Amino acid sequence: MKNFTLIAGPCAIEDEITGLKIAKEVKAICDELSIDYIFKASYKKANRSKNNSFTGIGDEKALNIIKSIGDELNVDTITDVHESHEPSKVANYVNHIQIPAFLCRQTDLLIAAGKTGLTINIKKGQYMSHDSMQFALEKVVSTGNKNVWLCERGNSFGYNDLIVDATAITKLKKHGYPVVMDCTHAVQKPNQTSGVTGGDPSLISSIVYSAVANGTDGLFIETHPDPKNAKSDPHTMLKLDLLYPILKKALAIRKAIS
Predict the structure, then answer these.
(1) Is the pLDDT of residue 1 over 50?
(2) Which of 184, 198, 220, 253 has CA atoms 20 to 30 A from the CA of 155?
(3) What separation in angstroms does the CA of 91 have from each of 48, 126, 228?
(4) CB 6 within 8 A of CB 39
(5) Residue 22 and residue 9 in contact, taking contact as beta carbons nearer than 8 Å
(6) What share of residues in the chain are helix, strand, coil (percent, to 5)?
């Protein structure tokens, strides 16, 4: 990763129009600010609390949309996988694969992802220490694939909140692989009685600036033009028109400490 990479897009593919609109706007921002851009979107959401929560528009349809966005805009793409049979299929559509935080200990999933040869972004479980992420890392590397990123997204605190350790980036970097900060899931307030994860997006910028000041290699930011009406993670995504000023300030911080 260079100065720094941005992984950004909607939480999930809702339709082709919304995904492409977000990708175009984020790419324009990244082009202006000389930031490497990777378009992110989940092709399906398998880890929802409620049985009737939005899980996707259909696997093939969503994967084809992600691929078409990457091809049209000439940007890399990433999506997450949940079961060990998925990586080999998903690898035909994207450039990178993401392992969800809850699944970062799933040996079969990590091995299958590693075998694709793609870069694997492993999110640190909310229940994991930074030191213990070496074992998740080793599972992917055991396949001969050393293209791995580690992604910080906060630790569970009580039942309804997450805490982001200010030393997290430094702790993860000691493993010798690039580190990404998930700035939007880090502001989640999980386990709400409504069955829908809450959050406080007003804190996203604080997470961004802290991560950049601590030398993160990449930022992960889910963004949407109308988060409140998004079909997935409406309470944690950054409103799209707020992205540019946050990134511009983040680059100023990066420059100041370099």
Answers:
(1) no
(2) 253
(3) 23, 26, 31
(4) no
(5) yes
(6) 40, 20, 40
Residue 244 lies in a domain: no
The confidence score (pLDDT) of residue 48 equals 56
- For the record, the structure tokens of 59 come out as 């696997």
How many domains, the chain? 1
Phi-psi region of 56 (alpha: psi -120 to 50; beta: other; left: phi over 0): left
Query: pLDDT tier at 193 (50, 70, 90 boundaries)?
Result: very low
**Residue pLDDT, tens place only, 197-252:** 556 889 999 999 999 999 999 999 999 999 999 888 788 899 999 999 999 999 99
Is 195 a member of any domain? yes
DSSP string, 210-257: HHHHTT-SEEEEEEESSGGG-SS-TTTPEEGGGHHHHHHHHHHHHHHH
Specify the CATH number for the domain of residue 67. 3.20.20.70
- Quick: pLDDT tens for 87-96: 999 999 999 9
Domain of 33, in residue numbers: 5-239
Residue 130 lies in a domain: yes
User: Per the structure block, which two tokens stand in for 85?
Assistant: 């049979």
